[in-house]
Amino acid sequence: MAELHLLGQIVGGSGFPQRRLFCKWGLQAGAAWRPLSGLTAGQTHVDDPQADDVTYWCHPIDVHYATKGLQGWPRLHVQVWHQDALGRRHVLGYGFCHVPAAPGLHSVRCATWRPLGERRERLRRRWVGGGAGLAEPAAAAAAGACDRFRLRCEAGGSVHLQLGVVLRHFARYGVCCG
Amino acid sequence: MECISSSLWTYQSVSLTRNSCIACDSQVSATDQMSRSEESQMIIMEELQDEDAAQTERLRRALTARRHSRRHTLPEAVGAPEPREEERSRAGMAAAPAAPRELPPVPSTSRAGSAESSVRERMREKLKAAKSKAEITLLQEDPTPRPRRLKSIKERKTEVRLHKASDNDKFREMQEDESHLPSKIKFRDTVKKLKEKSTYQNDLPSAEEAYNFFTFNFDAEPQNMKAEARKRNELNEEEEAEEECVETQEGEQEEDETDEDARLAKDDLFIIGQTAEDFLVMEPADCENYSEQLKKEKEFLFIPSMLAVPASEKMPRDIQPRYLEDEGLYVGERPFVSQSNQNIIENRILRQEQGKEWFGDDGKILALPNPIKQSSTRPPIFSLEEGIAPELETVYVKAVKMTAANQYLLGPGDLQGPFQLDIDISGLIFTHHPCFSREHVLAAKLAQLYDQYLARKQKNLTKLLTDKLHVLRNAVQSGIDSGDAGGPRPVAQQSIPEYKIEIRQTRRLRDAEQEKDRTLLKTIVKVWKQMKSLRDFQKFTNTPMKLYLRKEEVDQRLDEEAYEAEIQAEINELLEECMEEYEKKMEEYKTELKEWKLWKKTQKSKKKKKKKDIHEDEESVEDCDLGEERVKPIPPKMANSRDIEQQVREKADNCRRKPGEPALIPELVLSGNITPTELCPRAEVLRREDVKKRSAFIKVLFNSKEVSRTVTRPISSDFRVHFGQIFNLQIFSWPESLKLQIYETMGMSSTTLLAEVFIPVPETTVLTGSAPMEEVEFSSSQRVMLDHEGVGSGVSFSFEADGSNRMTLMTSGKVSNSVSWAVGEKGIPLIPPVSQQNTGISSALKNIDAIASIGTSGLTDMKKLAKWAAEAKLDPNDPSNAALMQLIMAATSGEAQVPEFFRLEQLQQEFNFVSDEEFNRSKRFRLLQLRSEEVSEFRNYKQVPLHEREISEKIFQDYEKRLQERDVVDSKNYLDAHRAVVANYLQKVRESVINRFLIAKHHFILSDLVNEEEIPSLGILGLSLFKLAEPKRPLRPRRKERKKVTAQNLSDGDVKLLVNIVRAYDIPVRKPVMGKFQQPSKSSRSFNEMFAASASAQSPPDSPDWAFSQVLVRPFVEVSFQRTVCRTTTAEGPNPNWNEELELPFRAPNGDYSTHSLQSVKDEVFINVFDEVLHDAVEDDRERGSGIHTHVERRWLGCVKIPFTTIYFQARIDGTFKVDIPPVLLGYSKDKTLGIERGYDSVQNLSEGSYITLFITIEPQLIPGESVREKFDTQEDEKLLQAAEKYEAECTSAFPSRQCLTTVIDLSGKTVFITKYIKPLNPPEELLDAVPDSSQSAAELVARYVSLIPFLPDSVSFAGICDLWSTSDQFLYLLAGDEEEHAVLLCNYFLGMGKKAWLIIGNAIPEGSTAYVLTLERSQYVIWNPSTGCFYGQYDTFCPLQNVYCLISCDNIWFNVQEHDAPARISFDVTKPKRWKSFFSRSFPYPGLNSVQPEELVYQCSDKAAAVELQGRIEKILKEKIMEWRPRHLTRWNRYCTSTLRSFLPLLEQNQGKDVEDDHQAELQKQLGDYRVSGFPIHRPFSEVRPLIEAVHSTGVHTIDISNVEFALAVYVHAYPQNVLSLWIYVASLVRNK
């Protein structure tokens, strides 16, 4: 019956090769977790920074979870997409990070990666747009990093998050957080 | 030493590896290895310790020589060696125990620092004991520290010295300087020793020497050195103590240092002085004989032999190995291990202590059934050829434009697109067909039997069971044997009875199977014989079937033996069984007998008693009677062995092959010849021709819709139809049903449906290519009789000549088909997601014949599966069943609650903080969740309490009640069952719509989120600068745009409703009480007359003297809103001028000021006009001079109602409104003369009624919610919709303020083109019949009828989301709707009555955007307000319609493109394209759309009785209410008046409330006489009781508090067709005049 309140924002992204980015995000938690209120998934607007290569989204996250167990601590995964000049979009990076377990405000940097695809696909991506993406992004997020070595990947930029975590009643069940 | 340790090491590691072998841990990680080696080092050191004594001895021997030589060389160098030596030794002895304490902890220096030091520490301690013995001899010479270490220590010391330069440290340093020396000494020593030895021995060193050399432990010496250093330290301390008194420390130390230096120099010199031979010696490489080595190794190493270990060694003595397999238990298959390896490990284990424990009963090593881990602990080696996990597969995604569809990252619906189901229909075989000849019937039977035979043979149950029986028997035998022979084994002993039971069962089963086999064989032969005889009889053959019986000869002797043995065994068992039974029975018998005897005894004693005492209780008599029924038990019979034998033999004869008899094996072949048609008799020829005519095809039905059909193929002579067609069905969702329909066609014409076959939807694992062909049987109940040889279907026939033994066969057959999921590119199966289906079953189930036994659909049904598993008695130990067992456990334990994913998060339960129930019980969580789900009760709940205890149970009560009573019709509030049902229905529609829009509300567009203010350009800036320079003119205020406030910042008390009451016109005036007054009754006028009328046309003013003599009216206005009441001051005269602003607080429901909540505020603003009447209340005339006593009485004159939502949407309401004045106001009359006299513009006076000018607004201004941008699904033509969109866009771009309506949303949420609503419909006949002559009065009556249908704004019910348009029949059924529904119905009625009518979409006050009806009456346009039933001329000033935007007819839409939009200023001639832009034109003609309206409206007749009943109930309720509102006064009811009023009401209804006023007054005066009466009738359409009460309350009749007041109230309900009710309430208050 412990509660976790996650308040924060997706501040922005940096280090991506392109501008005009937006971010899709989602929170995944185990079966013991139940979101009481707030959206657990969403998408930011497209930001096209003029001056810097840092993209700012400042997308709010406000989710209240109740849990009856520790397993499946929620994690946040993000997909950074690029919208090109023609208004088309393709994925630039997948990434995920766990919600910090300690109460307080955390600034989290979530590194992203992107499958490279075959040579032909890379060529095509360069000239036509689009790109290799995961067939099942949700499943990949679940698989996390453990199976990724099978893929030929490229490092993407990183997504910056500011996550404030408020925990309640964890101590009651003998979980010491922070 | 080194050698020993290394060998020890090997031994150790060997033993370790051995251990690891036993543990079956094949992979020992590197770290493990490390730790183990460390461990072994420790062990070595301990070994070392043990040998320490010997070592020291040896060392001492070696060193004594050294000391001697040193004594020779050093005496001069060292000042006083001897005493010092002694001193040292003494000190050493004394200080040894204390040494460790004083030694500073050795800090780690190198990598392995800590480990090393700890090892050392331990070693040091261990060595201490040994050292103390050898100390004296060892002390000075021994130290040979490693230079590296010393150096580091030195370095450290220098550091330390900086901080505290103690003497101790200095001494240490000194000693360190010395360090080079001992190492050299040592080396020299050994060399010398070697040299010495070499003199008297050969070049080869002795074994001992070599041993000494190699095992000399250099490692240990730093300790020695340290020990020495320690001692020195202590010595020094002692010295210090001594010297302190004599000299300064400094000097002494210096002296010491120099001393040491000198010594060092001497030593160096001494070494150099030696020749090379002194320490060099040539020696051959040391080599050990191999055999010797082996021999040595044998001492340490144990090599297990590879020979097999005899079983006797493995097992405890005298115990035979027991094989579980033979006992019928499942034993898992062990992985292959080579025999030699097994032998090695067995041998090795046996050497261990208690090694025998490692062996199981069967003499094999105990192990898990399969000790190999399922998954590799090592990460798999990645190779490119290997497939990537499916979830990590990448696809090239084209860059595509965004669509709004995939909004969220994670959600269902990722996998979309067409899925494919492949249905392969290969053929059809009839097992019976009407055209079957007799022979065919037999052939089919034979084929069936043969199939059965083959199937049985394949299973071969008999053999299986026989084998099992054998095994069981053996097991029992061995169990008994072992029990006899040795110590009894409890397990085996215990299981013997179980085995026996098992044997019995197995035997029974086997016998049954055998019997079946035999009968089957017999039947086959019998049928074949029948067939042969038939063929002989009819002299032709139809089928190519032939049966051969192959005989398999058997060895008679062996067979007989086996047979006999079997019988004997069976007999024995049976005998045993019988014996057991007998014993049991015997036992029973004995006990029974005992009881009986006992009973007998008591009986006898009782009888004796009875004889003594005749007056016995009845009870005991009864007892005796009962008791006498007892029978003496009969002893059981012993079974006869001969009987049993006979039984067994009989049975064996029946069901078993006789010994020696050859085994018969039938073989069915299709090699026979069919007699050609020419040779057949006529009947047969006919039959064959008939068959040829017939053909069949199969339809494929998907979700009961035909999707495809096979080609029609003729039925062949053997009644097989081959199709061989594959249908690929592209589908979008999981199929509900799959069906095949089998059709037969005869000749060209008739097609009959033979049968329908349901095919199970394939499992997701069944893919094309791997799907097996399945045969689905079908049969038809069709009855066919044929006139030829064919036997027909459903007709009985016989094979016998005499017609006996008749049989009836139905058409039946088999369709062989296969259904599977197609595999797309890249091998992805095209299977729709099975979200609804509960497929929690993994692929583990694929190969188990659960599928066969419960059907494929059962796999998804957990309960069924569990049941099957329970019946099938799966071996729970069989690992191949493990997944299934786990599943079943989950399914059965959880009370049929199947977890959705049974594999995920297995240990969740164990690690839960709380149980699920407790988790779900949490009120706080529930509240939070409901709030976030926006459930209406909790949508705006603020501040959920932090603690459970602070949340009361009551919060959920309403919600739960609502959930429960969703379907319960509550007729209490509605008084009318129909309306209750309708209200319930509306509530449901409302909920569903609201839910849909709540979702839509969360979809935002850019402008919702980003508020981008434009940067002012230079021009604007300049202008504003210019404005600053303008002169200020405070006397000419400018209107400033008010700031709009967003809803979320508001709270209670922030929002106010401002009502500015300006003035009123034509308020009714009081009539003199006694004045008799005649007004000319107005006849009904024609339209033309009414609108063209001028002031003069009105009734002339009455006598002016009357006008002046009467009492003036003193009106005031009271505004009530949300039960807050505000009033103006009292003005005088019928045209009062107040100009007052009233402020009323606004309170949103639940404190929620969000837009959708404000939109659904149902409150109305009541603006009531009252007359203030003052009565002289002075009782006594004498007091008149001294004081004023007056009673203030207020009398209701009329009201204006404005719903809050209107104000909210309009932001401000400004205008003159007609006051809703009751048709009769007792004691008042309309004064028209004054108006004329005062010279108001004549137009105003034209219409009857009073008017009030109001200005209403909300402070602060609230932003009205926008309608939802949501696309709805539609059934309209795409082209039409596009045109509509284009048209709307064009119109709104030209006139942005005018609304253009082309499509609307119907009740089911679909977009419908608006003209479809307009269609001529028949008004109720009853209304038309009432006024047959005049079309105008009929129109008025119809309008009134429409207006009687209660008004229910959509924006209230659907929270301002959008207008939902219901069709006229829906509207009439619901009996509620807003302007659009009223307008549509009225328009349709007018069209039905043959008028020209249009729907006007426009803007009116006070309702805002609305719909009116326009009719053309004799070149005159008339505007009808459908919700009031009033009509206005085009040029009527008081017409509430302010703007006209569109006109809609049944076949076109016209948009107003004129400059003005006020109805008085525009032309309604739609034929002018310059004034009206039409939707359908020549370029886009009207396509002829189907109306959504019904063909004809059917009306229910009005129920008069129900109306009367309702009338009574309402009257009662209202009376009660009035009494309730007057809690402090007595409420008297004047019955006489009431009955009078009641008689007025039907008249009012009849005249529609016109021109009856004065009759009432007169009548009442006549009836009641001396009463001051004030009262009025209220007219309302009936919907609910609540608004009626509200209406009565707002008139304030009850507020009179004159003591002798009496009341009268009458209700009249007039029922119109379709349950439309017109309701009149007449209220009056009476005060007796004095």
TrEMBL record, chain A:
Would I find Transmembrane among this entry's keywords? no
Q: Which GO terms describe its cellular component?
A: MKS complex
The answer to keyword Nucleotide-binding applying to this record is no
What family name appears in the similarity comment? Answer: Belongs to the B9D family.
Q: Which domain of life is it from?
A: Eukaryota
Major localization class: cytoplasm
One GO biological process from the UniProt record? Answer: cilium assembly
Compartments where found: Cytoplasm, Cytoskeleton, Cilium basal body
Record's signal peptide: none
Q: What is this protein's function per UniProt?
A: Component of the tectonic-like complex, a complex localized at the transition zone of primary cilia and acting as a barrier that prevents diffusion of transmembrane proteins between the cilia and plasma membranes.
A matching Pfam family: B9-C2
Which classification does the entry list for the species?
A: Eukaryota, Metazoa, Chordata, Craniata, Vertebrata
Q: Any idea which UniProt keywords this protein has?
A: Cell projection, Cilium biogenesis/degradation, Cytoplasm, Cytoskeleton
Q: Which PROSITE patterns match?
A: C2_B9 (PS51381)
The entry's protein name is B9 domain-containing protein 2
